[in-house]
Amino acid sequence: MSRLTLHLLGSPVLRQRSADVAVVDDDVRRLIDDMFETMAVAKGVGLAANQVGVATRVAVIDAEGQRFAMVNPQIVWSQGRHTAEEGCLSIPDVFGDVTRPAEVTLEALDREGQPFRLDASGLVARAIQHEIDHLDGILFLDHLGALRRAMLLKRFRKENAGKGYLKEVRDAEPEEARQG
Ligand code: NI
After folding, report:
1. CA distance to 87, 162, 164, per residue, from 159 (Å)
2. Domain boundaries, the chain
3. Would you say the C-alpha torsion 31, 177, 100, 16 has a positive or negative sign?
4. Burial (CB count <10 Å: 0-12, 13-18, 19+), residue 117
5. Hey, which residues are catalytic here?
6. Which run of H or E residues covers position 149?
7. What pLDDT score was predicted for residue 105?
8. What is the pLDDT along the chain (180 residues), one digit of tens a residue?
9. Distance (Å, rounded) from C-alpha 95 to C-alpha 13?
10. Spacing, Cα 6 to ligand 1 middle (Å)
11. 6-171 homologous superfamily
12. Of 121, 118, 117, whose CA–CA distance to 101 is shortest?
């Protein structure tokens, strides 16, 4: 396994709709394993393939004791509304309150290419939705009000001016927040 390079806000791949996976083969499994490692080092609760520069519909989740890969994921049912603070590994040190359905049912393929269905709530439901958003080119900032989004974007751009949009993951400080 190897750590992959994170793409930060500004990378075009974060704004495109990722393509369906036709076959879950060894290349996809290698990508999944590398994404799990990268997410763990970066202390994330979720990671989408386009966040490591690969525009295919693959994401991994590690939240509340549930750790799984999802290929071609789809929300087939949702209920309720819940607001909580979100962050994103592609937008370091930026946080905002996002309202999403509180409960979802996910359908996807697993690492072996087998279909599965998962009922999720809490942080797992939130992470699933956040990652599927990524695969559609949507960032959590897009769910915020225009004023709040503009303020956070301005701060991010100021702090990241001249740094480019690629970031090597490093072993995180223990106190760092877990981000998606
Ligand atoms: Ni994210």
Report:
1. 16, 9, 11
2. 6-171
3. negative
4. exposed
5. 131
6. helix 146-159
7. 98
8. 889 999 999 999 999 999 999 999 999 999 999 999 999 999 999 999 999 999 999 999 999 999 999 999 999 999 999 999 999 999 999 999 999 999 999 999 999 999 999 999 999 999 999 999 999 999 999 999 999 999 999 999 998 888 889 999 887 555 555 666
9. 21
10. 11
11. Peptide deformylase (3.90.45.10)
12. 121
Cα(15) to ligand 1 centroid in Å equals 12
| Alpha carbon distance 165, 160 (integer Å) | 9
Gap from CA of 131 to ligand 1 centroid (Å): 6
Helix (H, G, I), strand (E, B) or coil at 69: strand
In the prediction, which pLDDT does 33 show? 98
Q: Ligand 1 mean position to 34 CA, how many Å?
A: 17
Span from the CA of 120 to the centroid of ligand 1 (angstroms): 18
Report the 10 Å Cβ neighbour count for 76.
11
> How far apart are the CA of 133 and the centre of ligand 1, in A?
8
